[in-house]
């Protein structure tokens, strides 16, 4: 599970990243509101932990902006403001839960687990179907027809999900890097090309009726094969 933590207090952020990673979460951190919103808008995260008081842009404005764009990623709102009005404002802006500072790490982890379960229940109903291929993102599995089941790696699953959700559209390599690899500075276009190759092989070996077309110099597009 991949989390985005938007917290400007560096020592607190570093401590939370350490704790969350220790509990097997993948975590990216942002230290101001502008970077936090940019990262949230990539839609690569399963959960966002968002501080309210941030430099450059406040958390409440980030929350309203991402919800206005249709981004439904669960948000755990962190706030030092403990009035009923502040809580109502956060929830009305689109927060799924809130946590008042100072808080215990045990409570933070419990809230993250609760939102993770809720997100998992939502994802269970989000299988994708094109041609003879069905993708179950929650289990990183694809089925081809009624008999063939393919186990996908996390990156393969995220790549196929992105392409299936945008069938017929050209997805650039830059967009794939942002959505699948996020802010991993070591990732580059070679990673994209390698995983497209892996995914094509699995689809072709299973006689899938969809294919990943290369749009030279730009990126890729998912299409149904015209001869089936």
UniProtKB/TrEMBL annotation:
Among InterPro entries, the record links this protein to: CheY-like_superfamily, OmpR/PhoB-type_DNA-bd, Sig_transdc_resp-reg_C-effctor, Sig_transdc_resp-reg_receiver, WalR-like, WH-like_DNA-bd_sf
Residue ranges of domain OmpR/PhoB-type in the record: 125-224
Tell me the Pfam families matching this sequence. Answer: Response_reg (PF00072), Trans_reg_C (PF00486)
Swiss-Prot/TrEMBL GO biological process terms: regulation of DNA-templated transcription
Recorded GO MF terms: phosphorelay response regulator activity; transcription cis-regulatory region binding
| Domain spans labelled Response regulatory | 2-116
Q: Spell out the Gene3D superfamilies in the cross-references.
A: 3.40.50.2300, 6.10.250.690, Winged helix-like DNA-binding domain superfamily/Winged helix DNA-binding domain (1.10.10.10)
Q: Locate the DNA-binding region by residue range.
A: 125-224
Q: Sorted alphabetically, which keywords does the UniProt record give?
A: DNA-binding, Phosphoprotein, Transcription, Transcription regulation, Two-component regulatory system
Question: Which is one Gene Ontology cellular component term of this protein?
Answer: protein-DNA complex
What name does this protein carry? Stage 0 sporulation protein A homolog
Q: Which organism is it from?
A: Oxobacter pfennigii
């Amino acid at each position: 599970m991949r989390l985005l933590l938007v917290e400007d207090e560096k020592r607190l952020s570093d401590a939370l990243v350490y704790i969350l990673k220790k509990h097997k979460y993948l975590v990216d951190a942002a230290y101001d509101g502008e970077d936090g919103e940019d990262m949230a808008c990539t839609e690569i995260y399963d959960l966002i932990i968002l501080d309210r008081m941030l430099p450059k842009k406040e958390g409440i404005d980030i929350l309203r902006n991402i919800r206005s764009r249709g981004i439904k990623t669960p948000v755990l709102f962190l706030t030092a403001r403990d009035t009923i009005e502040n809580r109502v404002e956060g929830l009305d802006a689109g927060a799924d839960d809130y946590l008042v500072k100072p808080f215990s790490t045990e409570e933070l982890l419990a809230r993250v687990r609760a939102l993770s379960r809720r997100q998992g229940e939502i994802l269970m109903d989000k299988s994708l179907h094109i041609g003879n291929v069905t993708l179950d993102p929650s289990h990183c599995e694809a089925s081809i027809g009624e008999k063939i089941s393919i186990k996908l790696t996390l990156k393969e699953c995220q790549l196929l999900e992105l392409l299936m959700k945008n069938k017929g559209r050209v997805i650039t390599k830059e967009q794939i890097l942002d959505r699948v690899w996020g802010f991993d500075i070591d990732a580059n276009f070679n990673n994209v090309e390698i995983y497209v190759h892996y995914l094509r092989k699995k689809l072709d070996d299973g006689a899938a009726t969809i294919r990943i077309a290369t749009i030279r110099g730009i990126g890729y597009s998912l299409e149904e094969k015209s001869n089936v």
